[in-house]
């Protein structure tokens, strides 16, 4: 109830102020000049103030990054309305939509993270190049970006923009020591090479941590981290071509750390106070990432400008994972992969008095490989065994045999080797525009025509490496046991083979239309309708060694926005309300022959609705506050799968879709150089799976409080901080079968010394 009261209060604050602002607009024509805003949004491929951006976007500036000591993109997810981490830090959801697909289906993501315009591969988001040292701004777009971004942006997009070179000298260094034996050393700086024409900037960061989980079998940290990030940038503004700018960026990132997610043993008395893991096989990730971007900009004059952005990234990774969670060597996984992504965009922007917009061409090529070798424990499908035997033995005897068999062989040990190469090539033409019909009313519109060609193949070798139950030990049931043994070996045999590479082509037209009304200079509303899209493809069924085709999925998105500024722009209250209608939804479905008998299908349709409200208030030169609230409701309207028998999952909610997310904070600047920040975030309970009963996969709500106090002099500063100040203990995921969980990070305390000019 309190959440609704907060939303109603924020809305009432905005609406109660409309009358005075409207009255002031009558004083003269100048009242309709746009207010000056310091936050500029660039992720929609044009520069526009936050208050002029109708899309729901949460912006984290350099100032806020420093005030809150934000070091990773995951910390921003925690503090943003209608954003949530999923399955530990392995991913995120926007408005309840998991960026890997709502229930794991599909090859592409529903939301993409970009660093300086280059997409970060989905496989390395959990321990990839998204740390925030020397970052200028982070923009999180909630809602489809299919018209502007196209590929993999059905739910939204995250844009990380790093600091550019300048034509004055600067140097900044940072040293940090904190809990979990964590150390971080970083430096950034640069200046002119040729005054007024060529400048550079170099930044580097080295971070080491033992993590907070101890491995009792190997007697070492379970998820230690060793990360190195080096970035170099050049800015060229040739005097011979005064309206031309070129930015060249190279970024190298490498890390050795824990697996995508790290499990804690729940059988230990208080696993929050004593988080341990007993795996004998290392759960680890090694990631090596190189990225190059070339950004060319030319002001053509007459309100026209031309932009060409090319990006290339080369990512390799090796992941190791203990499949049995125990000190015994029963199951493990060893995965290696690589991904090359090349993108090229050519864009013409126009910024006239009444018409502003852009048209562009886009090309993307992605080449991905993934090889794995694992000994895996496939849960013996007792219900499938009973169904197979019922016709010959009768239901009661069949269930008895199945129970005895599962008791003797609860898991089927399989040595499995696989290779999954894929290629995706995308071409698109797109446009986006705003036309002012009057000084107050503007039309919004755009489109994207997207053509994708993807190719995927698969090869697998599977061998049974266990001991089958001896039929002779079961007397008159021996023939039945012999038959089940043969069926089990048949299941393993079915997992052998190769699927010829399948090539599929998809075309999509993605329109966008809306209107915006500026009621006063500081108050505007807009309504936009646009189509979201994720392409189809082919999914490899491991148990059957076959490719199965699935079709694209689409959304229609209806969004109402409010942008308002009050008290001479010291107070902003912004809000977005949305409704999403989703059809042909891609989902991962199981077809009865064990855990790995699964592939992507188009399972039906669903809907999502909710809102975000974000406000910030500069109370004085020494004090400011900010807050946000997000509400999302999700539901599968039609979701029927075949899991040995038909299962109707209609009516269930999306996994990792919190109904409520709240965040807020305050900054206080004392006299004499002292300053402080206090911020908190709340996420309501979430379901972690899509199954009956869904409540079995529920993890509770959590509230995180963070604080920092510091002293700043002319050339140096010192800060003391605490993350999760109240030491909130919470689960991110619980596996009831293995009794292992992914838990939230405990309280972390640290000190940071910075110096520079």
Automatic annotation (TrEMBL):
All copies of domain TonB-dependent receptor-like beta-barrel, residue ranges: 258-725
Pfam families in the record: Plug (PF07715), TonB_dep_Rec_b-barrel (PF00593)
Record InterPro entries: Beta-barrel_TonB, Beta-barrel_TonB_sf, Plug_dom, Plug_dom_sf, TonB-dep_rcpt-like, TonB_box_CS
Entry superkingdom: Bacteria
Domain TonB-dependent receptor plug intervals: 50-157
Cleaved signal peptide residues: 1-25
Entry's localization field: Cell outer membrane
GO cellular component: cell outer membrane
GO biological process: iron ion transport
The keyword Signal is assigned to this record: yes
Membrane topology recorded in Swiss-Prot or TrEMBL: Multi-pass membrane protein
Keywords linked to the UniProt accession: Cell outer membrane, Ion transport, Iron, Iron transport, Membrane, Receptor, Signal, TonB box, Transmembrane, Transmembrane beta strand, Transport
Chain span(s) of sequence motif TonB box: 38-44
Entry's family note: Belongs to the TonB-dependent receptor family.
Protein name, as recorded: TonB-dependent receptor
Organism: Alteraurantiacibacter aquimixticola
């Amino acid at each position: 109830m309190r959440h609704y009261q907060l939303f109603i209060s924020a809305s009432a604050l905005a609406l109660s102020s409309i009358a005075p602002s409207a009255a002031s607009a009558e004083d003269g024509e100048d009242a309709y000049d746009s207010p000056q805003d310091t936050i500029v949004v660039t992720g929609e491929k044009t520069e526009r103030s936050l208050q002029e951006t109708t899309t729901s976007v949460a912006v984290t500036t350099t100032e806020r990054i420093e005030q809150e000591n934000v070091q990773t993109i995951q910390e921003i997810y925690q503090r943003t309305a209608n954003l949530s981490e999923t399955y530990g830090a392995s991913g995120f959801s926007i408005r309840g939509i998991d960026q890997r697909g709502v229930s794991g289906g599909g090859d592409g993501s529903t939301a993409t993270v970009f660093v300086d315009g280059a997409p970060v591969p989905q496989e390395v988001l959990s321990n990839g190049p998204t740390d925030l040292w020397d970052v200028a701004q982070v923009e999180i777009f909630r809602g489809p970006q299919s018209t502007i971004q196209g590929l993999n942006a059905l739910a939204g997009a995250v844009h990380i923009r790093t600091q550019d070179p300048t034509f004055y000298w600067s140097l900044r260094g940072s040293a940090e020591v904190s809990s979990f034996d964590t150390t971080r050393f970083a430096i950034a700086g640069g200046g002119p090479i040729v005054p007024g024409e060529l400048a550079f900037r170099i930044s580097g960061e080295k971070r080491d941590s033992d993590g907070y989980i101890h491995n009792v079998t190997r007697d070492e940290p379970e998820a230690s981290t060793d990360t190195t990030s080096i970035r170099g940038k050049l800015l060229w503004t040739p005097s011979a071509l005064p309206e031309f700018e070129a930015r060249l960026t190279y970024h190298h990132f490498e890390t050795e750390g824990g697996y995508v997610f790290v499990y804690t043993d729940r059988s230990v008395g208080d696993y929050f106070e004593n988080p341990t893991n007993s795996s004998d096989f290392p759960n680890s990730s090694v990631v090596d990432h190189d990225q190059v971007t070339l950004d060319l900009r030319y002001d053509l004059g007459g309100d026209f400008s031309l932009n060409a952005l090319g990006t290339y990234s080369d990512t390799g990774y090796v992941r190791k994972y203990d499949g049995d969670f125990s000190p015994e060597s029963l199951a493990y996984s060893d995965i290696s992969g690589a991904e090359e992504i090349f993108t090229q965009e050519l864009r013409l922007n126009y910024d006239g008095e009444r018409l502003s917009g852009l048209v562009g061409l886009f090309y993307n090529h992605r080449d991905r490989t993934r090889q794995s070798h694992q000994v895996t424990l496939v849960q013996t499908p007792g219900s499938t065994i009973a169904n197979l035997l019922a016709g010959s033995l009768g239901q009661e005897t069949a269930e008895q045999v199945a129970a005895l068999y599962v008791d003797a062989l609860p898991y089927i040990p399989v040595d499995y080797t696989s290779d999954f190469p894929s290629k995706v090539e995308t071409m698109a033409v797109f446009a986006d525009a705003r036309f002012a019909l009057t000084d107050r009313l503007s039309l919004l519109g755009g489109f994207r025509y997207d053509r994708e060609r993807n190719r995927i193949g698969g090869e697998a070798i599977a061998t049974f490496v266990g001991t089958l139950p001896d039929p002779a030990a079961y007397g008159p049931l021996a023939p039945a046991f012999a038959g089940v043994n043969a069926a089990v070996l048949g299941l393993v045999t079915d997992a052998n083979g190769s699927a010829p590479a399948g090539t599929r082509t998809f075309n999509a037209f993605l329109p966008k239309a809306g209107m915006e009304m500026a009621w006063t200079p500081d108050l505007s509303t807009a309504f936009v309708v646009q189509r979201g899209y994720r392409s189809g493809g082919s999914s490899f069924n491991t148990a059957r060694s076959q490719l199965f085709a699935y079709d694209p999925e689409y959304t229609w998105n209806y969004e109402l926005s409010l942008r308002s500024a009050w008290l001479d722009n010291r107070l902003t209250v912004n809000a977005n309300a949305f409704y999403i209608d989703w059809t042909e939804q891609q989902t991962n479905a199981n077809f009865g022959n064990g855990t790995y008998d699964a592939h992507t299908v188009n399972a039906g349709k669903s809907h999502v609705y909710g809102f975000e409200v974000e406000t910030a208030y500069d109370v004085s030169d020494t004090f400011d506050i900010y807050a946000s609230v997000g509400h999302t409701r999700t539901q599968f309207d039609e979701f029927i799968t075949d899991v040995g028998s038909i299962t109707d999952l209609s009516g269930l909610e999306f996994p990792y879709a919190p109904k409520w997310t709240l965040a807020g904070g305050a900054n206080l600047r004392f006299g004499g150089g002292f300053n402080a920040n206090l911020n908190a975030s709340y996420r309501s309970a979430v379901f972690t799976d899509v199954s009956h009963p869904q409540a079995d996969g529920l993890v509770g709500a959590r509230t995180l409080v963070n604080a920092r106090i510091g002293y700043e002099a002319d050339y140096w500063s010192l800060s003391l901080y605490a993350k999760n100040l109240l030491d909130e203990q919470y689960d991110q995921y619980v596996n009831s079968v293995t009794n292992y969980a992914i838990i939230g990070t405990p309280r972390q305390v640290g000190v940071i010394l910075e110096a520079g000019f």
